[in-house]
């Protein structure tokens, strides 16, 4: 199978690019993670988001532990081909490991980061299985 | 002036984090660039997006050449504090140097990246001044 489309991506020195997961319905940005070539290939094949975990140094099929998989409706890249944008449907409505819908729950308020999104589910409950 | 809020950001080994510019009205993701500490400080101070140009190795007040500045309504960070999200109003309605509204104009269609957003203004016209 041709992989010309994967060659077009400008992987960084570590072979990675940032990938943004955006709620396909609301436009809300849910999270940013990283992908290597294999992660992007698998994401396209599966139709579910697969990232590269930099801390665990392995492929990470989002939701493999939490059940909070991400159904991928659209894959985009930008003018420099060094960022991936996924338009997704978030299973369970929770993308963040803190139990919030979005990872972007800290908003700058003057000189402080204020938490502006509620925890929807206790993380201990999400990850106990 | 206290800079505790800047210390909270997990700058990478190059002292940078990715910054996403999102249209505050439509939720559309317009571009991703990079910020260092000074860029984020200036963005907050000015209320307009200032990035770090990795190619030119200098601060880049977005729109300084094109006139397409970005008015910043909100600054967020994620659970790991290693990505910045700006909710902005895009002057001129064009964020991309190709003359398109958004940099994310390439959509994966099978095994090919298809261009799915129109050029709104000839880049030669944008940058000739």
UniProtKB/TrEMBL annotation, chains A, B:
GO terms for cellular component: cytoplasm. Residues 31-105 form the Phosphoribosyl-AMP cyclohydrolase domain. Binds 1 zinc ion per subunit. Its EC number is 3.5.4.19. It is found in: Cytoplasm. Keywords: Amino-acid biosynthesis, Cytoplasm, Histidine biosynthesis, Hydrolase, Magnesium, Metal-binding, Zinc. Its cofactor is Zn(2+); Mg(2+). It catalyses: 1-(5-phospho-beta-D-ribosyl)-5'-AMP + H2O = 1-(5-phospho-beta-D-ribosyl)-5-[(5-phospho-beta-D-ribosylamino)methylideneamino]imidazole-4-carboxamide; 1-(5-phospho-beta-D-ribosyl)-ATP + H2O = 1-(5-phospho-beta-D-ribosyl)-5'-AMP + diphosphate + H(+). It is an enzyme of class 3 (hydrolase). Zn(2+) binds at residues 79, 96, 103. In the C-terminal section; belongs to the PRA-PH family. Belongs to the PRA-CH family. Catalyzes the hydrolysis of the adenine ring of phosphoribosyl-AMP. PANTHER family: HISTIDINE BIOSYNTHESIS BIFUNCTIONAL PROTEIN (PTHR42945), HISTIDINE BIOSYNTHESIS BIFUNCTIONAL PROTEIN HIS7 (PTHR42945:SF1). This is Phosphoribosyl-AMP cyclohydrolase.
């Amino acid at each position: 199978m041709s992989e010309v489309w994967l060659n077009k991506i400008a992987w960084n020195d570590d072979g990675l690019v940032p990938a943004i997961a955006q709620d396909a319905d609301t436009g809300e940005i849910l999270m940013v993670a990283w992908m290597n070539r294999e992660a992007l290939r698998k994401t396209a094949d599966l139709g579910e988001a697969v990232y590269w975990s930099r801390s665990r140094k392995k492929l990470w099929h989002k939701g493999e532990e939490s059940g909070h998989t991400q159904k991928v409706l659209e894959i985009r890249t930008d003018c420099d081909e060094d960022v991936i944008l996924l338009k997704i449907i978030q299973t369970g409505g929770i993308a963040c490991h803190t139990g919030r819908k979005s990872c972007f729950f800290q908003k700058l308020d003057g000189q402080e980061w204020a938490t502006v999104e509620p925890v929807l589910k206790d993380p201990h409950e999400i990850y106990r299985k």
